[in-house]
Every structure is written in structure tokens, then in C-alpha cells.
Design a protein that fits this description.
Elements (H helix, E strand, L loop, with lengths): L1 H30 L15 E2 L6 E2 L7 E5 H6 L15 E6 L2 E6 L15 E5 L2 E2 L13 E8 L13 E7 L7 E9 L3 E12 L2 E12 L4 E2 L10 E13 L4 E13 L7 E8 L6 E5 L13 E2 L6 E16 L3 E19 L9 E3 L2 E14 L5 E20 L8 E22 L4 E20 L12 E4 L2 E17 L2 E12 L2 E2 L16 E2 L2 E13 L3 E13 L2 E5 L5 E5 L2 E16 L2 E16 L3 E2 L5 E2 L3 E4 L17 E4 L8 E2 L6 E10 L7 E11 L2 E2 L8 E2 L2 E13 L2 E8 L7 E6 L4 E5 L4 E9 L1
Parallel strand pairs: 6-9, 13-18
Antiparallel strand pairs: 1-2, 3-8, 4-5, 6-7, 8-9, 10-11, 10-50, 11-12, 12-14, 14-15, 15-19, 16-17, 16-49, 19-20, 20-21, 20-22, 21-23, 22-23, 23-24, 24-25, 25-26, 25-27, 27-28, 28-31, 29-30, 31-32, 32-35, 33-34, 35-36, 36-41, 36-42, 37-38, 39-40, 42-43, 43-46, 44-45, 46-47, 47-50, 48-49
Length: about 775
């Protein structure tokens, strides 16, 4: 409750203060005159907010993939993770319910209290720190911007890989409504509606989306073809008060209720790579106890229900004011997410070990932002930011029959971030521009604890064992030179820093009695990024090309030990470099093409080699099957018949980074007839390709070979108010893993959906 009060106090103060200055701001606005010419040509001018103010994308010296509402619709993008197929160098992978986005090789594979992601996700300016809420149904989206490279100056501490910025429509006094309904294979249904309107200074909108389906998985244990049945719904309402032309306040409330176990539908993984213990292929990776198992992408073997539910409530307030000399924005947020999940760890139909993992998250953010007005040679942004994020895990053993669940333990952290930042661009000459900025932040992990694990005999598993707090300060600068070749083109060279905050490993090493309950010292990640780029946009052809080099150190990774324990440690260092090109072409009003390509050479320079508290070498997290008679080096962490992290002196050099393909490409043509006597017809498709990736933290194991997907859509608009469309997702039926779950009980694989065909109807008024 305290966090909610903080958020709304910030909102109230911002609103009250601005109402006092509204007459002054309105008078200043009346005296200022601006004009905007509509772009001439086929493509609309691409406007982005990558520098926290609206600017033409061609003038912003950051690599950006900007996706319009039209591009999202024609590619049949339903959830945020679907933008992977439109964005070179971006991946959305999973670890059960945890989404793990990666940009240019920078992502995270860790799942722990307060672990967070390396890619910041923002919706209408509001940060979402919870990886369990990183992939969500899209509502009223007008654009999505994928900002590549560290955004540590303007967007914060956990944006070492970049940021994904989602922008939705504001309520309007002009009445408007639209709805669409779709039905596809596996009984997939989706119903979505939006309406807005108002009077005078008040505008409101309301939107809802409901989806359900049976999924494509069959449980061979009981022949249940509805084991992956899902039902999700989200509603959102907004109220906008436009007090004057200069001052407005927008309140929003969002409620989501997701019941979708698809991310828990894992079967036994197969792997042809070499097991370092046996020197042979891994083969089928199941627990070495007889049981029913499967490796078929359309099947699982489960004797206990697997589940994932997430109830989310989000309250936000956005205050905007034109102060004459600058634009002011206040962003206040309170969000609460309650997740319940139950996942099998051994991937065989035996009640050996199923983990219950409810997670409770409470987030408060407050940001104040001042941005300069267009026109002067000096353009600037100044801001202050506050984040409080409480992340609580509760663990159960769900494989012991009968309610209530058998309590296993748990952990909790509260992450706080307080920051101030400034960023400015100065027009040295009409062609030469210099940008400099810095963010100064203080991070702390407070109120951390873990619950006594049940195997500590005589201990209460509900007891909270406190862990000392940690804190740090960090400055992350950036500097850019941009040269304007013509009104349509720019070249730039930039340097930027980013970091991912330090972690308290309360879910792992803090609980290790063999190591005297000493928490791993998980240092912040650091990335130093250099980039040169070229941008061109003449409203018919838009092209962005970039070359980049990252020096990346102290990567935070998970090590899963025998017995399902997981520690968080720092990898030594890595280097990433590559090339990208993002291309948009509008031949005429009937034919457009969007295309992109990325080559990303992401390699660990050295992984492993540091010393633990006992002076032993900590090797890279390489996994091996445990033989019947473990050698001395494995006996401490090796139980015959299980899989384990091999804690040897293994040091890896020049190996792939996790979730990092060398090549990704996308191609999306669209053709339309224009208006005819019987309406307009449009055909579109999207081809996505990725080279191989590795799911293991070391980047040497659990390979997913290269694959390509093809999506198609045909649409008929008999009038401007109605349409009917047929669509196909993954029509070539490519089957690929989107997750590999590794632990001490077995190694499981989660698979993409097969080809899905469907039909969609829509109406706009």
C-alpha cells in the first residue's frame, strides 16, 4: 500500500503544481507559433522518442527498429514477443514463464529474486521490470520502437542490451470505435474491442481483449489433447483531462488475468552435442529412472498438472504541460503482479519432483521529465527517476500428493533505484551536431531474505532469514557526433555505457550451508558500446545501417547444481561486434517492402577462471550427465542418474554467447490493389531467418539449429469500415525450440507452435 501511496503522491504533486502554472503556460503557448508540413511521398515520416522527445528517426543517432501499427497488423503480431520476427538482432526466448529478450547478444538467462532483464520494456513511458510480464497481449498500440545498444543515460540501469518502447493511443473527445474477432487452428479465438469519446475537457477510452484455445500439445500420459488449454483476458480504461491547451492529465488502469500453461509444456530434450563426462552424444536427456517420456514437439509426458497464471493490476498517471520554455512530463506508476506456476523438472511422467513457484511483485515508479522546445540550437532533456521493485518467490514441492502444497522455501528482495540524468544536443553548425549526456544513479537491494529450506532439519520453512543490504552508485555517459549530409540523411559516431545492477543471490548461494551461507558477490554488468551509423529517409526509401563494437564484462549467469540448486555468478568478459541494416521501401501506394539484416559476432572472450571463497577455480557452467561412479572432481555435486553443472577448472574462450545468433534477417513485402468497385485487396507476408543459437549459459551446449518462419496474410476491405482477412503463421511448419530448461533432474525442451491458419473480421466506426 505504501508504494501505491508514493506513486499517487507523485502524480498529485505534479498535477497540482502544473494547474498553478497553467495560465502562464497557456499564455506562453499562445505567443509561440509552429508549423508542420505534411510529408510528401509514400512513407509517413517516422517519428520516435528514443531521446525522450519526439524527433524524426532519421535525425536520431541511435539504431532503431520502428514498427508502425500497420506493420504490426500485417505481420499478425499478437504479443510483444512476436516482434522478434520483424526485428533483426532481437530474440525472445523463455525459461518456463520468464521471457528472456536479447538484443545484439545482450540478454539474461537468470531467474532469481530481483534478477531482472538486460532489456528494458516501457509501455507509454512506464518501466516493467518483471520478466514474467515481459511478453504480453498488445492493446491499442500505435508503434513499437526497439532501441539497440545500451540506453543507460536516458532509460536506466537495466538497459545494457537496449530498450523496447511501446506507445499506445490516448483517449480522444472525437468518438471512435473498432472491434475484431479471429478464429484459427487449435480452436484459437481472440476478441478485441476499443472505444473512445468525450466532451469538453474530458475524454475516456476503454479496451478489452479475450483469447482462448486448446493449444497444440497432447499429454501421452493420459491422452489429454487439452493439457495446454489457455484463457487470457485484459481490460484497460483511460481518463484524460485536458485542462487547457497546455496541461493534461491521463489516468489509466489495466487489469490482466492470464491462464496459459504453454510455457510449462516441456518434453525431454534431445541433443547431438558431446557430453563432456562420457565423450558421447547427449541423446535423450531424461532422469535415469524408468518413466514415460517423449521428444515429440507436439507432446509431453506429465502425471501432474502444469500451470501458469498471472493476475496483474497497473495504475498509472501521466501529467503533461507546455511551460513555454520547455515541456514537462510526470509519470507515476503502481503495478502488482501475482503469478502462480507449477513446473516439472524431470520431464518424465513420474511424481519425482515438480516445483511450485508462486511469485508476487510490487512496483512503484516515479519520473519527472523536462524537454526543450523545438527550434533553438541547443536541445536538451533533464529528468529524475525513482523505482521500488519488490520481488518475492515462494517455493513448494507439488509432487507430494494432497493439499496443501509442501513448502520448500523462498526468497525476496526489494530493489531501489534513484537517478538523475541530463542529455543535450548542440547544433555546432547547420550540418554538425554534438550530443552529450550522463545518468547518475544509486542502486540498493533492501529487505532481502530467504526462507529456511525444508531440508534444514528442525527449521521452519516460513522463517525469514535476513540478508544484509547492498548498494552502489554508477554514472553512465554517452557522447555522439552527428553530421547532416542532406535534409534526408545523416551519419553519426557514438559512445555509450550501460549497466545491469548488482544482485543479492538470496535464491541460491545465500542458502548454501556448505559455503557457510555466504552470498555470491554478484557485481553489476558493464557494457561500453561504440557505434557508427548512416540514416536516410526521403519518405519513399528509409534505410538505417550501423556497425557496432561492445566491450562487455561481469555478465550475470545462472549455474544450476545437482538437486535443482541455482547460483548466480559473474562471467568474466565478452566482446560483441557486428553490422546491421534496416530498410523500408515504398514503390507506390500499392507496393511496400520492409527488410532487415544483422550480423552479430557475440563471443565470450573468457568464461570461468575466478576463485571462490575456498580458493578453488570456478569453471564455466558446463553440464554433464552424472555417471554411475563419478570421478573425484564430480563427486561433490554429482548424483548418479542426474545432470549436473561440472564445477571444474574448465575455462572457455571464444565461444558463443547464450541466445545469440550470428545472423538474423527479415523480409516483409505488402501489395494492395487500392480501392476498386468491390473494395480493396491486400496481400502481405513476413519471412524471418535466424542462424543457430545455444541455450546453455556457456554458449556451448543445447544447440538450436538455424531455422526460418514464414507468415502470410490476405485481406479484403469491402468498405473502409469493414474487413475480412485470412492469415497463416509459420506456414512452412518450422519446428524449433524456444527454451531449454536445465537442472539437476533432467533437461527439457519447449517448442514453437506448428503452422496455424485462421480468419479475422474487423470493423471501425
Amino acid at each position: 500500500m505504501g508504494n501505491r501511496i508514493i506513486a499517487w503522491i507523485g502524480s498529485a504533486l505534479g498535477t497540482a503544481g502544473l494547474l498553478l502554472v497553467a495560465p502562464i503556460a497557456a499564455h506562453a503557448q499562445q505567443q509561440a507559433t509552429t508549423s508542420a508540413e505534411a510529408p510528401v511521398g509514400g512513407l509517413e515520416e517516422i517519428v520516435v522518442t528514443a531521446q525522450r522527445r519526439s524527433e524524426a528517426a532519421v535525425d536520431v543517432p541511435i539504431s532503431i527498429t520502428a514498427l508502425s501499427q500497420n506493420e504490426l497488423e500485417t505481420a499478425n503480431v499478437q504479443n510483444l514477443g512476436d516482434i522478434q520476427k520483424l526485428t533483426p538482432a532481437l530474440r525472445f526466448d523463455y525459461q518456463t514463464g520468464f521471457a528472456q529478450p536479447t538484443i545484439r547478444g545482450i540478454g539474461t538467462g537468470i531467474t532469481t529474486s530481483g534478477g531482472g532483464s538486460n532489456v528494458g520494456i516501457y509501455v507509454d513511458g512506464f518501466y516493467s521490470p518483471n520478466p514474467l510480464a515481459s511478453d504480453f497481449q498488445l492493446l491499442g498500440v500505435s508503434s513499437i520502437q526497439v532501441l539497440k545498444g545500451p540506453q543507460g543515460t536516458l532509460f536506466g540501469h537495466n538497459t545494457t542490451g537496449g530498450a523496447i518502447v511501446v506507445t499506445t493511443d490516448d483517449p480522444s473527445v472525437d468518438p471512435r470505435a473498432e472491434a475484431k474477432v479471429s478464429y484459427g487452428r487449435f480452436d484459437s479465438q481472440k476478441y478485441q474491442a476499443y472505444a473512445t469519446g468525450g466532451f469538453g475537457i474530458v475524454a475516456a477510452d476503454v479496451e478489452g481483449v479475450y483469447s482462448k484455445g486448446s493449444g497444440f500439445i497432447t499429454n501421452i500420459y493420459d491422452d489429454d489433447s487439452h493439457v495446454a488449454l489457455y484463457e487470457n483476458w485484459t481490460t484497460r480504461a483511460g481518463l484524460k483531462l485536458q485542462f487547457t491547451d497546455a496541461v493534461s492529465v491521463l489516468f489509466r488502469y489495466t487489469h490482466s488475468n492470464l491462464d496459459d500453461p504453454s510455457t510449462q509444456m516441456l518434453n525431454s530434450n534431445t541433443d547431438t552435442s558431446i557430453d563432456p563426462t562420457t565423450g558421447k552424444d547427449w541423446g535423450i536427456q531424461t532422469l535415469a529412472v524408468p518413466g514415460t517420456y517423449t521428444t515429440n514437439p507436439n507432446q509431453i509426458a506429465a502425471n501432474l498438472p502444469r500451470l501458469y497464471t498471472n493476475i496483474t493490476n497497473i495504475e498509472t498517471a501521466t501529467v503533461k504541460a507546455d511551460l513555454g520554455f520547455a515541456n514537462f512530463t510526470s509519470l507515476s506508476q503502481y503495478r502488482q503482479e501475482n503469478v502462480n506456476q507449477s513446473e516439472a523438472l524431470q520431464q518424465v511422467a513420474l511424481p519425482i519432483f515438480q516445483l511450485g513457484l508462486p511469485i508476487f511483485d510490487y512496483t512503484t515508479t516515479q519520473e519527472f521529465l523536462l524537454t526543450s522546445k523545438p527550434g533553438p540550437r541547443l536541445q536538451w532533456t533533464v529528468g529524475a527517476y525513482y523505482l521500488s521493485y519488490r520481488d518475492t518467490y515462494v517455493t513448494y514441492i507439488d509432487s507430494i500428493p494432497g493439499p496443501p502444497r509442501f513448502r520448500l522455501g523462498g526468497s525476496s528482495t526489494t530493489t531501489q533505484n534513484i537517478a538523475g540524468y541530463v542529455d543535450a544536443t548542440y547544433e555546432v553548425t547547420p550540418q554538425l551536431f554534438f550530443t552529450g549526456g550522463v545518468r547518475y544513479a544509486h542502486d540498493a537491494v533492501l529487505d532481502a531474505y530467504y526462507n529456511n529450506p525444508f531440508f534444514y532439519l528442525g527449521q521452519n520453512p516460513n522463517q525469514e532469514i535476513k540478508v544484509p543490504s547492498i548498494n552502489s552508485t554508477k554514472a553512465t555517459p554517452r557522447a555522439v557526433l552527428r553530421y547532416k549530409l542532406t535534409d534526408d540523411s545523416n551519419v553519426y559516431a557514438s559512445y555509450a555505457e550501460g549497466y545491469k545492477a548488482a544482485i543479492l543471490d538470496v535464491g541460491g548461494s545465500c542458502q548454501d550451508a556448505q559455503d557457510n551461507l555466504k552470498c555470491n558477490n554478484v557485481q553489476p554488468e558493464d557494457v561500453h558500446a561504440f557505434e557508427v551509423g548512416y540514416k536516410f529517409d526521403n519518405h519513399r526509401i528509409a534505410n538505417e545501417a550501423a556497425a557496432f563494437l561492445y566491450n562487455y564484462k561481469n555478465l550475470q549467469v545462472s549455474e544450476f547444481l545437482a538437486g535443482a540448486e541455482a547460483y548466480i555468478v559473474n562471467a568474466a568478459q565478452s566482446r560483441i561486434y557486428g553490422l546491421e541494416d534496416d530498410f523500408h521501401f515504398d514503390l507506390n501506394e500499392h507496393f511496400q517492402v520492409n527488410a532487415g539484416f544483422a550480423w552479430t559476432h557475440a563471443r565470450y572472450q573468457q568464461f570461468g577462471g575466478s576463485l571462490n571463497a575456498a580458493g578453488q577455480v570456478i569453471g564455466a557452467p558446463v553440464y554433464a550427465s552424472c555417471p554411475a561412479n563419478p570421478p573425484p572432481a564430480l563427486q561433490a555435486d554429482c548424483t548418479p542418474g542426474t545432470y549436473t553443472y561440472v564445477n571444474t577448472s574448465t575455462v572457455l574462450r571464444d565461444v558463443h554467447m547464450q541466445h545469440s545468433p550470428d545472423y538474423t534477417a527479415t523480409l516483409g513485402p505488402r501489395f494492395s490493389t487500392g480501392q476498386t468497385a468491390i473494395g480493396e485487396f491486400a496481400l502481405s507476408s513476413n519471412l524471418y531467418y535466424t542462424s543457430r543459437i545455444y541455450f546453455s549459459p556457456s554458449g556451448t551446449q543445447f544447440q538450436q539449429p538455424a531455422y526460418a518462419t514464414l507468415d502470410v496474410r490476405g485481406q479484403w476491405n469491402p468498405t473502409k469500415n469493414y474487413y475480412v482477412a485470412v492469415y497463416g503463421d509459420n506456414v512452412a511448419n518450422a519446428r524449433y525450440r524456444n527454451q531449454v530448461q536445465y537442472n539437476g533432474f533432467g533437461i527439457g525442451a519447449g517448442w514453437s507452435a506448428p503452422a496455424i491458419w485462421g480468419v479475422e473480421f474487423g470493423a471501425k466506426f
